[in-house]
Amino acid sequence: MTGKAVAPWIRTRLRTAPGAAAALALLVLVTAWLAAAYPRGVDTYEDEGLRRTVASAPPGRTALQFTAGAPGLALPDDQRAAMVGPEPMRQRFDAVVRNVPAPLTSDPTQSTYGLRTTRKLPSDEPYLPRPNGLPPRFTVASQADLGSHSRLVSGRLPAGSADQKAAEAEVAVTVETAKSLDLRAGSVLHVTGIGRPPLAFKVTGVVEPLLPEAGYWSVLPALRTPQLLPASDDRDAPKYWHGGLLLAPTAAATLFATDGKPEMYVQLALQTTALTDRQLTAVKASLASVQSGPALSRLHTVYAASSSSYTELDQVLRSYQTVRDSIDPVVAVAGFGTATVAAVVLLMAGGLAASRRAAELALLRARGGALRQIAGRLLAESTVVVVPAAALGLLLAVLALPEGRFGPALAAATGVAALGCLALPVRAALTHRTVRSAAERADPVREKSSARRTVAELTLLALAVAAVFALRRRGTAGGPADALLSAAPVLVGVIAALVLIRLYPLPLRWAARPATRLRGTVGFLSLARAGRAPGGGALPLLALLTALTTAAFGGSVLAGSDDARDRAALYATGTDARIGSDLPLPGDLPGRVSRVPGVQGISPVSIEYSVPLPAGAGSGQGADGDEGEGENPGAIDRTTVAGVDPASYARLTAGTALGIDADRIKAPPGAPGKAVAPGKAVAPGKAVLPAIASPAVAHRLGKEPVTLHVAGKDLAVRVIAVQDRSAAVPQSDFLLLDTAGLGAKYATVLLVGGTSLDGKALREAAAGAHVSVALRSEVRQEYADSPLQTGAGHIYTAAVAAGAGLAALALLLSLLRGAPERSALLARLRTMGLTRRQGRSLLVLEALPSALLAGAGGALTGWASIALLAPGIDLAGLALANTGGLAPVGAELRADPTSLALPAVCVVLLAAGVAAAQAWWSGRLGTLTELRAGDAR
């Protein structure tokens, strides 16, 4: 007689073990959420970093600029004037906008066009300021839509039409131009005409830009803010004012009558709010088309035959890509490590479920159950729990991170779901391939490896060696992330785990022999149990070592990034704060600054730039015969000389990489010496000033005394020490002298030391002195103030934390697998007289060998992976923003002791704590209950 089953398999199993099903669902939910959030988080910070990079660049670099020569050179004046009228110019502008290839999109609110002069027009009006006796020069532009981008402060906007024959044209100026050049409504500026009397530009109004930093005003900043420019390339050349005049579009033709060589122009500000990293390749292709491709060819037809384009957006994108490519491989290390630990935890969860149900599955096989049928039912049982949990994790990741691609997140969540579904049936199928009454006992001490295992381990070893070799040779700064290179630390951890698993029986055997001679039984029993406890085999140790290696590596990466930022900020300012000026500082400024809360010390510095060095003065060696770090002695002929107070300077720089010995550079009695001819040897008996120099300067001057012309006098100096950088002159080559020997009468820089300095208070104290104030804390924040760096740091921290949490879970799963048997063992031993204290000691000592092995092995593996991979890891991109990926200091990877020791100690403490907690809980239950619940026979 046949009939239906009384109850369906899946419903029965879920009702029988709801706690196990809920735990599996929670594990899959969290794992799927982490897996789906990782690629979306990477996409988010990369997109924000790209937008910030483009938005923070000057508009003159990111705008698309199209220019063409003055139209109609062979046409009559009236026809030429008509060609640059408002409507024809608007039509050309619209044609340019339509022919810009996607995905480039112009921002109509900040884009503009017009006719402008390319040669500056001088105006010799007597009321105009002349800093060095040179008259101001002007750029004149008929920029469209002036009224929409400015607020009228006085007068009115320029209007009225004018052509080449007009005697006067109306212009407007900005508030800053009017203030700097003493202009107002009604002012008249005359410029030279071509074959005609001078042309008069009458200022009819003064306007204030609504968005002065936006593209409309900043592509050609002279129209907004006048500039003091040198008349030649000479450093000491006289300077003149360069300002901008905003001409009415209806009077653009008047520029044809000047010597300004006018040209038509279009400025297209680009929309960047929707720009994504995935569009980077298409954007670069569009830029290439605009610069020298099909798009430019079309512009020759629709705009002008002589049209050309210019933009530096491709360089901006290239700088972003350089930083991104140096960050991605480092971040991928954390991703690979966490993914490996997560996969191991899912496999351990399946193994735990299979071991708990070993008797049930063995009975099914013994009663004729087909292996395929049993695996299918287990798969269906797991699918009902795993798939909804993975889908919910994916949904939570999408809601938490709304930006980013959905495809990679879906693939990651699907992988988690597949592994969660297959872990139990595959493990059960492998365990119960043959029919048997019960599962064999796992015994690491007596377990022998198979040939297949050896081949697999050797394959992983070959992959690890190849990854390490490739990473050391190519490095992370050579291109985008590579899976093999990023997996190198994980592969090192896996190989270490496999080695430790093979070595694990040896220390247990060595320790078990003397333990047999001890009077108590706890030590021998704990060691014997450690070698035979069903903890899951190699998976727990693999998870722990991978997580510990990733945590140690990640902690060292984050610590190295922080250290690089600290050193970069120190090298930028020299001390905690720097107050500097090109002019002499007021005499009362040190007193005002010293009264600012938090200031603990001040050191005045007198700096003189571009001091000529004697030709052929040195022997090519620095102080004490040191070579000049590979510098060419002919590559530097000038340097910066800084006079410092040795005592205060040494106090402020003590304990940093810029510190000096104050006694070594103190000026000797009688300095400065009597003047001698520059470049000649110093006569015996003359006072020679000791100096500290940068490697290039030391290489040039050599180790013998030479004479330099500094501070208006000739001084004899000798390099007595070489230092890569100095606090006085942190950004260039230098020569450090004692101010007393230099004879400087005033300071140009104040170095300030202190804790928790208030930048606002310092700037208020220095107000009115025309100085710049830089704080080391603010500079350090600027290095980290980038979505690319901060986002990558957060992703890395989260990945390492998730890996550590999953590793702790792996340890708990390993201990839970043998928990019933341990509880039963304690109950049996209590019937034989074992005390509660001895029971706790037994479980703790049983858990310690594997925990100590994992902790010590993880710390050692982390240190070894850092030592092996450090030459190929570049932290500059991750550590420093606003440097184009080029670090001002070395940003190398170093082992961080805290990151190595703390995770290892936590593993040991967690294992001991769980074992002690189990012993305590078992002691509260009755012996009979424990014997029945833990009987696995």
Describe this structure in words.
This protein has 31 helices and 21 strands. A hairpin with a 2-residue loop joins strand 17 (706-710) and strand 18. It starts with 8 loop residues before the first helix and ends with a helix. The model is unreliable at 619-634 and 673-685 (pLDDT under 50).
Distance between the termini: 35 Å
Number of helices: 31
**Which term fits the overall shape?**
flat
Low-confidence stretches: 619-634, 673-685
Q: How would you classify the helix and strand content by structural class? A: alpha+beta
Rg over alpha carbons: 38 Å
> What is the tally of beta strands?
21
Largest sheet at a glance?
9 strands, mixed
Strand order of the largest sheet: 17-18-16-19-15-14-20-13-21
Helix content: 40-55%
Classify the beta-strand content into a percent band.
Answer: 5-15%
The averaged pLDDT comes out at 80
Q: Brief overview, please?
A:
This protein has 937 residues and is an alpha+beta fold. The protein contains 31 helices and 21 strands.
Based on the model shown, name its key terms.
937 residues, alpha+beta, 8-stranded mixed sheet, 31 helices, 21 strands, flat
